[in-house]
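Comment thread on ticket #2218

A.B. wrote:
> Attaching the input chain for the structure job we discussed in standup.
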Amino acid sequence: MQADLANARLYALSPDEIHVYQADLRVIESLEKALYELLSGDERDRASEFVDALHRLRFVAARGLLRMLLSAYTGQRPGDLQFRYGAQGKPQLCAPAGAGSLEFNLSHSDDVVVYAITRNRAVGGDVEHVKDFSGMEDVAEMSFSPQEVRAWRSFPAGERTKAFYRCWTRKEAFIKAVGSGVSYPLDRFDVTLGDQAELLSLEDDRTKAAEWTLYDCDLSADLAGAVAVHSRGLKLLQFALDAATHSGSPDEIQITASRLGLPGTGIAED
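C.D. wrote:
> Ran it. Output below, let me know if you need it in another format.
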């Protein structure tokens, strides 16, 4: 089961790049059995903890697809990749040798999953479905900084839902990059809520904030997504994982990825 790097140009990750992938997990749901075979023992244990079959399927698909993506970048078999986990559960590659230079993060909302991959710098990502809900103001007051709440309230009523999710995904992307999860105080840093994503202040220090870059992901109208990286001046490239097939046996998988302006290419696992 070796990744086919015939189209290695797509998976050649330069030090000054971030690669972001979006996938609809429904595209690969028929491959659940084959993707499950790629998982480690602890990942299979986690999968078995899901009572709901749909949630289990989404976990298996998202983790199996992650392994195939990282396989394409490392040239290693997807099942041979090993992870270690931070205190808040953020995964990092620890094998094979040299794979540790890859930093990555994933986030999913229902059937949509987003992966962010870069080298030698902390990265985090978040994706959410944009939908109005009762109690949005209460959530904003609990989760946003005072400056962000004021900024959110300044938007016209018809624009507040979109502004809410801009703020939410940018903040989530940052705390996932830091690796602190929900333990990081959400009122200790400020992000923008407008069209331009930016970390304004970090623990009241604009100099610290200037070490980070926030990016919005170019997703469909009903989705909001953001990526945070501990660096400046990186180029973000977005890809779609838009098809999946297997032939001969469930162990033969081909995932097709495409980038805006480029023809599709394949991540083959055979």
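A.B. wrote:
> Thanks. Noting for the ticket: The radius of gyration is 19 Å.
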